[in-house]
Amino acid sequence: MIHSSPARFALLIFTGLILLWTVLLSLPFSSSTGTITPLADALFTAVSAICVTGLSTVDMSAHWSLFGELVILAGLQIGGIGVLTLASILGLTVTRRLGLRQRLLAAGDTNPMRMGRDVSESQAVGLGDIGGLLAAVATSLVVIEVALTLLIAPRLMTEGYDFWSAVWNGFYLAASAFTNTGFVPLAGGLAPFETDVYLLSVLAVGVFLGSIGFPVIFALYRYVVGGGWRAHKRLGLHAKLTLTTTLVFVIFGWLAIGVLEMSNPATLGGHGFWDTVLSSGYMSVMTRSGGLGIIDPAQMEGSTLLVMDMLMFVGGGSASTAGGIKVTTIAVLFLAAYAEARGYQDVQAFGRRIPNEVLRVSVSILIWGATIVLAATVALMHLTGESLDFVLFEVISAFGTCGLSTGLSGEVGDAGKYILAATMWAGRVGTVTLAAAVAATSRSRMFRLPEERPIVG
After folding, report:
1. Of the candidates 84, 81, 60, which has an alpha carbon nearest to the alpha carbon of residue 72?
2. Closest CA to 213 of 317, 303, 314
3. Among the listed residues 81, 65, 113, 95, the one whose alpha carbon sits nearest the alpha carbon of residue 17
4. Cα–Cα separations (whole angstroms), residue 327 to 212, 308, 351, 359
5. pTM for the whole structure
6. Torsional class of 9: left (φ above 0), alpha (ψ -120 to 50), beta (otherwise)
7. Is 31 exposed, middle or buried (0-12, 13-18, 19+ CB in 10 A)?
8. pLDDT tens-digit series, residues 305-358
């Protein structure tokens, strides 16, 4: 199965890890009180950790023991790296070599379109670069999280935490930020730091780096060490699209949240100008899939929730720790619309042509993503009787593995928790991987049917 259907293998291992983490979190010594955590809460937390979502049905700072926190921390690290990528890194560490099958396996994890089909090697990361990419994944995970910990821990110490508590909570926050999980181990959450420029900036940088994706981090590294501006062609189309679209959405969210909430006394209405700029910009970055919120979405205007719904649905970059349909997907769709409006034969960007296969997959991702969100929203609304804006926000936060919450996750019954858990699972696994797992292999047909054009639009 590993070689014939990597997608099915990934789904099997991914689901198996969730079940294992559910068992571990259900154990009495995983909770601070020494009691068994109910199945629905243990499963929800396991899915939220492995899927790097950050939604929770229990108080994360009080419910879990040290063992439970270690299990959750290990889960979000595994989920952030990716199952097949982690397996490839471990295999490379043990065998000291990376064969063709291992390269194909790792390539399928960074680009699910490669699973079970013959593809052109004009990829964002070629097979020859897989070894370097795996090294970049492991290195960036360690270096970035350690750097973030060194920046966060001193700030926690000035807040009254002792040295070891500051280091532990700092590392927990660093891992939560870089993996875009959104779990907060602090008793008061981030409320004491809601106007702290230093800490919020550090967390925002960590979330941004995690959301752009390991291939982009790898491309930026090669770009910097390979000649900078004189070697601009080293920065490929995927990296350019990811960075450009991410910045556009961050700026758009920044302006929209600030303008829509500046007159809301429950959120930013009582803030000064610079505090409003800081809070709105920070919350915009968190919609990439970060989830480390400082403003209660339940107090926000309905218009703001809708804007954040759109941002969370898009999510971050492909092969990143973020969720959503991904920024490159929406970029390709907008480029296709632009090409159609201008009468171009091909979809193109930055002097490169994007093949129709990528466009078809982008359309499929959008449709399947919207279908999953719609089905989960209808089911949850029927079960809870809550309003559409709160339910839709919670569902999209789960699908986009974002973790921002109106508080609905902790109020729904067991059935609602299972629905949200399934939505998180589908959002993290990805619609492309699901489709590849179902199809197993691409099927070629030896004939083409007669053409007939329906009326559209």
Report:
1. 60
2. 317
3. 81
4. 9, 15, 19, 13
5. 0.86
6. alpha
7. buried
8. 999 999 999 998 887 878 889 999 999 999 999 999 988 888 998 888 988 888
